[in-house]
Amino acid sequence: MPVRPPTGPRHGPLALLHTSPAHIPVFDALRDEDHQGLELRHLVAEELLAGARRDGPEAMAGVVRAALDRAVAQGAAAVLCTCSTIGAVAERAGAEVPVLRADRPMAAAAVATGPRVVVLASLESTLAPTVALVEDEARAAGRTVDVRTVLVDDAWALFEAGDLDGCARAVANSADAVADADVIVLAQGSMAPAQRLITTTIPVLSSPRPGLAAGAEAARRG
User: Phi/psi zone of residue 151: left (φ > 0), alpha (ψ -120 to 50 degrees), beta?
Assistant: First the structure.
C-alpha cells in the first residue's frame, strides 16, 4: 500500500535570531504544539544584546545584517527576531527574505485591547524599543494609547543566573502590582513563563506564541 505524504501547509525553513540560547526550547515547544512540520533554524548571537546595551541598538545594525545574511545563506525562507531590543534594527536591515520581530503581533493585540498599556521589562534597554513599537501599532490602527513602563529590576539577574522560576516570580509580582491599565505587555520573550503565575484580572500579553505564528506564516509564503 503506498504511503501518503503528510497533509497540511508546507513551510520553508524559519530562522530564529536569538540573543540567548534559553529561547530555543521555548520556541521548539511552541512549534511542536502549533506548527508541526515547520523547520526551525536557531541562530544565537548573544553579542547583539550585549552590544546594544553598551552602545545602543542602532550601533549593532551591521552585525544584525550579517547574522541575517547568514540565515539567508543557510536557506531560511523568513527570519524571526526574538529579541525586543534589536527587533526594530532587524526589521529595517533589508534582508533578502521577510524579517519579522516576534513582539509586533503582541503590540498589535495590546493596542486592540485598550488605550492604557503598561510595558513590563527586565532590561532597561528594552523599554524604549517596546514603547516605540506599541505607539507605532497604535498609529497604524488609528488609535491613541497611553503607555507606561515598569522595570522589573531583579528579573534579568535571575534570568542570567539560570533561575528561570525566580525570574518568572519577579515578573509576576510586578504584573500583579499594576493598576489602572487595560493591558500589560511582557516586553521580552524571556518573561513569558510568568503568565502562569500572574493572578491579576488585567490581560497580560507575551510575544513567543503570536510571534512564532507570524513567522510560520511568513515562512509558508516564502
Answer: beta
List the chain pLDDT tens, one digit each, 222 residues. 444 444 444 568 999 999 999 999 999 999 999 999 999 999 999 999 999 999 999 999 999 999 999 999 999 999 999 999 999 999 999 889 999 999 999 999 999 999 999 999 999 999 999 999 999 999 999 999 999 999 998 999 999 899 999 999 999 999 999 999 999 999 999 999 999 999 999 999 999 999 999 999 999 987
Query: In degrees, to the nearest 5, what angle opens at C-alpha 113 toward C-alphas 110 and 114?
Result: 100
What is the phi/psi pair of residue 109, to 5°? -65, -35
Angle between helices 23-34 and 208-221 in degrees, nearest 10: 70
The candidate with the shortest Cα–Cα distance to 15, out of 64, 63, 72, 61, is 72
Residue 25's CB is within 10 A of a number of other CB atoms, namely: 10
